Amino acid sequence: GGAVAAPTAVTVDGNNATKLTDVLGLNNVVGSSVWSYNSPPSGTVNVVATGAAGTDFMLMVVRSYSGVDTAAPFGTPQSYNPVTSTANMDVTGIGSDTGQLGALCGAARKGTANTTFSADATSPVSTERADITHSSGSPQISATVYEENGASGTIDMRVDMSENVQATAIGVSILPATASATRQRSAVFYP
Known about the structure:
By secondary structure, this protein is mainly β. It has strands at residues 9-12, 15-16, 18-24, 31-36, 47-50, 62-66, 78-80, 86-96, 101-110, 117-119, 127-134, 140-149, 153-174, 184-189.
């Protein structure tokens, strides 16, 4: 049982991050949230998310990207919030262009079963960058991040799950600093 809420704050080494968007699922039992912080220091950093009162669990995946437009790092986010349990996450119509990177950040929640994620076979196939689960007790919650190269127009990102669960996801394009910039990706924190 219990409800979730979007984080009320995220800090990087004590400095405020900026919320892009969040989405809460049916009956507020699962949610996804995307935050950003421009130009973090090199090396190891402390990332802290503050949950709202009554939040049962929070999983966090932090990704670091270079070569990103710091003035406008993201396109318009699209969310996925089904009204019933489902075995996939489909975020469609993500504004994109060649040279951009599409990212899907999702969460799933189900009683006592571990939910695993896999790339949908629809071309182009997304690449899994993170898949973590809180597996002690009930409920089980899982978080994932998938990425795929952008294309002219829009992209659709689809991720399959091992079972029907309550899930949410956010898809967004990460914009390069210049058309020729190569984004470098590395996980800086993976609980």
